[in-house]
Amino acid sequence: xxxxxxxxxxxxxxxxxxxxxxxxxxxxxxxxxxxxxxxxxxxxxxxxxxxxxxxxxxxxxxxxxxxxxxxxxxxxxxxxxxxxxxxxxxxxxxxxxxxxxxxxxxxxxxxxxxxxxxxxxxxxxxxxxxxxxxxxxxxxxxxxxxxxxxxxxxxxxxxxxxxxxxxxxxxxxxxxxxxxxxxxxxxxxxxxxxxxxxxxxxxxxxxxxxxxxxxxxxxxxxxxxxxxxxxxxxxxxxxxxxxxxxxxxxxxxxxxxxxxxxxxxxxxxxxxxxxxxxxxxxxxxxxxxxxxxxxxxxxxxxxxxxxxxxxxxxxxxxxxxxxxxxxxxxxxxxxxxxxxxxxxxxxxxxxxxxxxxxxxxxxxxxxxxxxxxxxxxxxxxxxxxxxxxxxxxxxxxxxxxxxxxxxxxxxxxxxxxxxxxxxxxxxxxxxxxxxxxxxxxxxxxxxxxxxxxxxxxxxxxxxxxxxxxxxxxxxxxxxxxxxxxxxxxxxxxxxxxxxxxxxxx
Length: 505
Description:
about 500 residues, alpha/beta, Rossmann fold, GMP Synthetase, Chain A, domain 3, nine-stranded mixed sheet, six-stranded antiparallel sheet, 27 strands, globular
């Protein structure tokens, strides 16, 4: 049997469509229901659906009144303020194209991005001009909220709606252009990952500029009519369990690193919590199991990327088996590809999604050749390796450029890291092949620990659990492991830094 899914055909977006209108489709029906709560330690900032709808469409009108036009690109540089999603949807409602950026980016970084984006304006927390002379501060933005609501700019669902910057984990960061129809594709996650219902209260631990937060934490709950709970800027991760308990969160979404931090401390009872959601990097089985033991709730993992969000996942109705990320969501045609063809099940290959997927990007901005290079025939090649089992479950095996070669065998770093993280004194780990001398590479294990660990003991630990060719030959203690803007582990950086420090580059 080949590593290929046969999807249930999804319903296509209407010919006249606007993503913001779709997200806010329940505003009239749910006017007084809380759509968004920004959670502070001593208070909440609540936005009802009526308030959100008015502010978004008022913002669209304000942007038009400033002389901005449909198709204009707008940089967003705001923290975890309610102004962020209002501005984001306000731009889309007006037919403009928001470009969410981290508020932590330095001026030179923003300037480089702006050089590619060519923004017409920037909505940001201060009045310092970076990338464009037209700056809209939160104080100005908020004056738009009470304006007479603009009508949604309807049009082709395949036209650009927003631009997301990749984290650069696989090389040069890119500006990823998504269509309005992308929000329609996200409905396949409601049952295929979240188990999302209108009565849910989704608490997401990420920053607003992260696509995981924007989609899972905000857009999807609002599209179905649920409530989004977002911790205020500066909230310590240790405070999240208390916030979940206090605000009756039914779903919790975070990256695996957040789950690991929470598991180090005591947690209050969270009786409303049904389950957790994880994305952004591979969720270690030990972390998943420890969370289940400590809270009595499961964590459902998803695999995705900036170019296509999440399309492989486990869910409450279809949990992933041990070690697997999940199954292709209904409506998604997924394959494991090698040399342009689906491989037999049980064989490692590149995870690919069909070019006609509604959630797939339109392309990389100003980089047609790079866009074309990502496709192999009908398949968008993710650059991530995976294995599809006989049951259709897909296990993540690392990025193509992270795969290690040991004695002619291809070894997944995930497999090695899973063994390392099972050690009681290892907090985090990363495995990569490093060059120790010309034409000689070995598997190195980088790890963080609060203890001094003996290399011989670590060697024995791995030897009991891994085939000899998979065992690390080097064990390197680190204060921290490098991560990208989206919290993804940067094995490539570890490898480059070690080889540079040891005179191999």
